[in-house]
Design a protein that fits this description.
Six copies of one chain form a homohexamer. Chain A is elongated and about 65 Å long. By secondary structure, chain A is of the alpha+beta class. The first copy, chain A, has a five-stranded mixed barrel with strand order 1-2-3-5-4. The first copy, chain A, starts with 12 loop residues before the first strand and ends in a 26-residue tail after the last helix. Chain A has two domains: 89 residues, Beta Barrel (OB fold (Dihydrolipoamide Acetyltransferase, E2P)); 175 residues, no CATH class. Chain A has eleven helices and five strands; from the N terminus they run E-E-E-H-E-E-H-H-H-H-H-H-H-H-H-H. The longest helix of chain A is centred in the last third of the chain and has 24 residues. Chains in contact: A-B, A-C, A-E, A-F, B-C, B-D, B-F, C-D, C-E, D-E, D-F, E-F.
């Protein structure tokens, strides 16, 4: 795809394939039903109205359908919309593949699996190593596919694994500079800290929260998993409690969802590494869409701040 | 014991048996070592200084030793102290028993066990009943002996079980008035909510926090136990998640240590019942020591408030 | 009324009587005026647009008019709307009564008056009894008709008295379990705590705040009333101050509108009983409209939480 | 009194009359009782230990006794103490008067009464004028004698009236600059805002809180008084509610004890005038004791800040 | 202009000149572009839709164009709108002047400059006087033209100077009542405190924040200017640091943008004077538009409160 | 020095040289003056009482005097004290050097200067490079000697430079992993962010705050310096504003003393790098003094948390 759907300016014409992310039927003020479609490619998404919402239409344009569209880009209250002139579902002859419309991590699942395996391989503490390896293996498939969140940061296919890979590299650099850190604990904490999200979230695409995600949360889910894994593997010793604590405390404060704050040095560092990587990801994505000399949109999880891109920025 | 040690006024003479709760060696400004003893009976405790702290003295007056003391009560900066004239360890002939010096719940362990068993017996949902019964049985001994906390409320031997019994009776009254409540869930929540304290705390006397208590906390400990119990008993179904949620959320807010707030009606009610019983316990204990027309000491966990006892109070 | 207006699904046809709760004239984007009607029966309310807002139309469809409507239910941005096909005011022949369209407490005014009178009758402290009886008598009519609030909980005709009756029963159960509580104080506190709302609010239907309600508030209004009642009845003694304190402090914290926090045991309990009953009322109403396995809408006064209804709920 | 007791430096000798503000009996580490005396003159107070606390001694040196002392000033942990060499109660021949040892406002009671009377005389709204005059007359004696607080600001004899006089002059200046302000309301608000303190506080000397002060507070006390006064004088009309609101809201925020925030322009201004005058009083008192180029002690009610006195200050 | 555009009621006809404050092109739900105009005169502003947004139309109705309009006032969701019947740009023959459509301070620039010059002239400390005079001269033109803010208070042409003039008069009154205040410091603080706004804001009309305003802020900008001015004028001595502190701290608290809280008496007073004048300005403007017996709109910077205008208000 | 003064256990004898850090004269309860000495070597400090405080004694044992002491270590209320048996000032023959008793950074000033120079040398943006080099040169001497704070972290001689060196290495690692970061900005931010401390603090030893430190603060001091440097060097362009912003915002939030939050990506990262290095320093120092299986003392700037050292820690 030469030019992503989010790179068009108002007034330009569009003629391309897109995937339906969501489709909501509503009723206009005049009583007629219509469909609001969110259409996406790997560059992001755009809204379009379909002024017809008969039952067969609704069925034809269900989420995850690939469509051929033609129309014009318009600015509606500050956000871009696609005014549809034509729309049809892609046919097999169009040779389209869902994977081509979904944003995904810049590394392949294999590359990421290799990097993480290498980190586990280097662990010296057998208890920590065995628990980490067991849990990663148990959720291997989901871990490599899920996003790290429904929005805000790393909210793309394989975002969870990609976030972990970045954090591992950051953890390694920091452990090189501060040699009193226990590398095994730090790496295990990075790998396990968000693994409960494979239960908390519904899946890699059109991601929402499961009931268990809402009522228990990924932190407690993974703390439980560590306890059960240790039992299954017959592992006893302080490492179990320490790993549970590191996962439990990684949000840093009670108000942010950690029932205990970090009380082990590596837990405190994990909290920092997690934040630093998540924020770099959010900032890079927001600044990509901003011209030098201008401010980004407000970024909600960064205290709703706008960031400035200096004129002399590369 | 006719008159408790905390019921003496300044100036009165004392001649009685007490138990040493703690003994701390310090050095006076002039360089001489001495012992600060906390001496207790079932009415409470009093401080005394022992102006000698030779090694054999320190050994002789270790915590949990029963001693015969004589001396005078004095007011030191607003708190009562016992100025010792004589002290000696009790001998076997004195016929003293440690249990006579320790505050304990007003119901016997058997009475409390019977009441709780009856509540479990009445449960209709077999999953909830089996998990509750299993965990209570697993920690039966500790549950009936531990306090509910190291301080603030129900901080006496068997305080945990007594708190649960009061809460069950309150839960029953409330369920009678609001028939949409699920009694099984509510009773199970009451019985399990603080059971993790038998791991969080060190024991029934001179209670402190264990490392696991500090790093994981009684809430997460019990959530894990419920998960493992369900696995062991082969129980599947939403009841497991719901019970975990009820325990997880019973502190009511993230800031108070619950990683998720109550999101099930019975969880919200459990939080209220827990608070109401704990506060009645604190208020009754503080007001017992206060004369009509006066204010209690400040009560820290009640937002550091003082409470007034009206003249017309019974 | 067999099926309430809020029980229809999108797509269903409607043909029934409803009462106009409010009617607001607006101008569409194209410059034409129209009416937005809120139509209610005892099950709740629904919005409808009337594409005509001539002066005579506006007069004909004023609030509290009963109308006959026919049309179709539609989902507009997640909320149900009634698309009107026909509308006309009810005529005398239709035999409709305003009372049939207004939600009201599940007990009759007489039943509630009887219960409350019985509680006052049982009071032993004559000062407390006389002040309570005097004030209840003074506002007898309004007390039995007013809602407990303009929204959130017990926001229906006679909601105030119904809230008081529930709280009295809860207070009785709690006093049975904790015998140190002064029943007279607790019952008087329950009966008087929100009585100032008959001055704070405008009336039983289409309720808003009066200027005095905004500037002084129901708490201070009732504290003043207690003082003046005592003066009128020639009552002196600490009971007056204590009753004033209990009303003054029943919101629990300065931030929530109580200039003094509870500093008397019964005041602390009143705050709990008030909260517990209000929350049960909100939860029951929200869960009634929720299917097992789903979450309620967010409930603003419950910290904006959604509540889950387990599959195994009755 | 040439040189006040707080103006001595460590090492200087003292030989003068002082008044006992408080006397507390304690027991030293070695078991001997002693008295801690707070001794005052109009410049402030100093602590002294009396190494004898026999019953007759305690009686002889009760609070509000005037004593002749001789001794030396010493610095004890950063605060001045008086090391007593000699002490005796003043005899009638010494010709001492309690009033000479108590700090008092810089204006006489008569001067202050005259100024305030003049402000009331200038009021044009008869309702506001009559209520204000009635209440001032009712508490005339206490109003002119009480302090404005137990500590922090205007905590001296007649401090309440002096605070009101300063505020009235400030209110007049501000009303001259902002002519839309209603002078009658503003002046009445200034005069009545703290008048409830004559019930809240115990008296002009050694001031503490009364039970009514603790449980109801000066704000609600005065709101009630205004209501009863209006009733007694047969005054009806919005002025009553508005005066009540102005008193009710003068602490500015719920957290600071006002159940309603200011919602009338003059109420908002009263809050500012009150704060401004109180802070000037605190700052002047703290800076008087500070040398140019240095910082004051921390001032608790000013957010615990220290203030700098520039070298070029007058 | 006899009757301001904000003084019309819904239903009235309008035929007058207005100035375009802003013009935003949007797309209607049906895909057609249109212009949303904000039209202003000195009484305030009103919204109007122009159902045509061709390129030449957009150019013709750019911001700051004066237009002749005819149409009708309508109430759209509680706010007034102008439904245009006719619109055309004013021609030279119409003899309109942009200055006639812009709200401006009630004093002329010359009057304000004279008053401020007089205050500077009266300063006795030459360091303070020279720095203040230099900076005022440097930004003389902008200072007399800029608003004090983009919204909330004194958001009109010359609002900054008018705010300073009011504050100087208030400062003088207060210094008359509290003679320990250093007038030079207080006056210099008033004059300089917001002078950085001439760099922070974009200009007197259609005011926005500059990049420097966003990234550095008017407080730090002016602190820097004071430092550089002192260097340029060769002034040394504590006055420089003290002036910097007074400007630095005038928002009162870290949360409100002052990196240091006031720690000099005159700094504390400046904070109060600034607030008091800003709030009087906001209250007067809101109450002007409110009838006796009613509440104003919510005023966001006054904690979002509504204010009541008593019936007996002048 | 074989064994540091903080490494002794209670009961051990001491015979060594120490430096007096502070000496405070006080008066005992019995009226006798004495000296409280804080004595230090590079391992930390210990308190000792000198029961004699004649004028010549006080002069002889002034701060920064090196003394020979003999005595015994005692535990006084949980903290170690040195009970002196003998003390004398060191004589020239003892050959002691003040530098041997003061904690200092683990790298020499030359090593640190070299590392920082290399980072400046690598900068590509000439504006950023020149401003950074100029300011570092201007304060070269103080920068290499000052601590980074009076307490909490890097509170030793050369602590400021050592903190900067660690942060530079961390910044480099992070920039390697996140290539969109502007290295010049990040390095300049690290070097300049705390440089204002050489004006804020009094010096490298016995460090306190200067008046300018209290009233203006190191952040605003350095923002001003950057502005004046740019003027002196004739540098214009956005780099000046951006560097000022990065220093201005490095505390991260208004509540923490930054008048503007980070609004440039490198400013956000600087805040993280600063925190991470400061916390590692605090944690390492606290955990050094803690045995495996135990908790550290509470660390105030880490939210007053205690940290656990696992048994399996290296």
């Amino acid at each position: 795809m030469d030019k992503g759907i989010t790179q068009y300016e108002a007034g330009e014409s569009v003629d391309c394939f897109l995937m339906i992310r969501s489709a909501v039927k509503s009723t206009a003020v005049n009583g007629n039903p219509y469909l609001t479609l969110m259409l996406q490619d790997t560059s992001g998404e755009i809204e379009a109205k379909l002024w017809d919402a008969k039952d067969e239409t609704v069925k034809m344009y269900a989420p995850q359908t690939i469509v051929k569209v033609a129309g014009e880009i318009q600015n509606y209250r500050g956000r871009m919309q696609l005014k549809l002139r034509q729309i049809r579902p892609a046919s097999p002859q169009d040779g389209m593949d869902a994977g081509d419309f979904v944003e995904t991590a810049p590394l392949s699942q294999e590359e990421m699996a290799d990097i993480i395996t290498q980190f586990i391989f280097e662990m010296k503490n057998p208890h920590i190593q065995r628990i980490t390896r067991f849990l990663l293996k148990k959720y291997h498939h989901e871990f490599l596919e899920y996003p790290a969140a429904t929005k805000n940061h790393h909210e793309f296919v394989s975002g969870l694994a990609y976030h972990v890979v970045s954090m591992l590299q950051l953890a390694k650099s920091i452990a090189d500079l501060y040699p009193t850190l226990d590398r095994d604990l730090l790496y295990a904490g990075v790998i396990l800290h968000d693994l409960g999200k494979v239960t908390e979230l519904s899946g890699p695409i059109a991601t929402t929260y499961t009931a268990e995600g809402n009522l228990i949360g990924h932190i407690s889910i993974m703390v439980n998993e560590i306890g059960q894994t240790a039992k299954e593997l017959g592992i006893e010793g302080e490492e179990v409690m320490v790993l549970q604590h590191i996962v439990l405390s990684h949000h840093g404060k009670a108000e942010w969802g950690s029932p205990k704050p970090p009380m082990i040095k590596e837990a405190e560092m994990l909290h920092y590494i997690d934040n630093l990587d998540a924020k770099m990801n959010m900032l890079d994505r927001a600044l990509e869409r901003t011209k030098p000399g201008e401010f980004t949109e407000r970024i909600f999880p960064l205290d709703n701040r706008s960031f400035y891109k200096p004129h002399f920025s590369k």
